[in-house]
Amino acid sequence: MPGQFTMSIDKAVETAREAEKLGVGGLLLFGLPQEKDELGSDAYSESGIIQETLRALRQNVKNLLLITDICLCEYTSHGHCGVIRHRDVDNDSTLKLLADVGVSHARAGADMVAPSDMMDGRVAAIRSALDREGFSNTPIMAYSAKYASAFYGPFREAADSAPQFGDRRSYQMDPPNSREALKEIATDIQEGADIVMVKPALAYLDVIAKARRLFNVPLAAYQVSGEYSMIEAAARNGWIDRERTILETTTAIKRAGADIIITYYALELARSL
User: Fold this and answer.
1) Does some domain include residue 253?
2) What's this model's pTM, rounded to 2 decimal places?
3) Any idea which residues carry the catalytic annotation?
4) Burial of 214 by CB count in 10 Å (0-12 exposed, 13-18 middle, 19+ buried)?
């Protein structure tokens, strides 16, 4: 992904300081461990990469919202988002691990946690665990309508998180289906989600608009790696005006109804707007 880098902890601190000065609303943190295993144990280890990064950021930035992605795909050797049983993801066995991740992140300093795994019942499991461990004020931003999209490719390559077998269509949303997305959003709200998300953004502006009309909770949308990379590739070939395209695409996401835009262009937009 042109212009995007996996950061060491010290570089993450530098970026967070810049984001804070520019008035960016928050950072969404993803971890890339040195070693991966079947159960993604670095995701919920107290000495995991995200946990160590959170502690460093908490010491250096005071007015920046720190949000952490909760999933196992970046940490598992097989690249799937949960525990594997008979070459398939075991939903119920995964919930305990996701709850452990959420509590571990909150304990290390996360202001908000964001489950992206799409397991059934994960919002309720994380909410219950956070409340039980004394983090009842830690909100959840749920990846509620996360589609099985072709636009995730660049991120998966960068994070080395592509599935080693099969795919994620059994637990991510089917692209033609918008009605199920609205049911998933409603379920997450019932389970305790404070913010809901549609991902990706541009190919699903209709889902964002429908969600905005139906639900009275903050709505996020994620301009994902493939969307970013297409803009960068087209701009480098001279086919589009890069700056105008960045602004036009993010404006479209906002116009569709998103309250929060998660984008790789956040720092650049903050400098220019």
Assistant:
1) no
2) 0.91
3) 146, 199
4) exposed
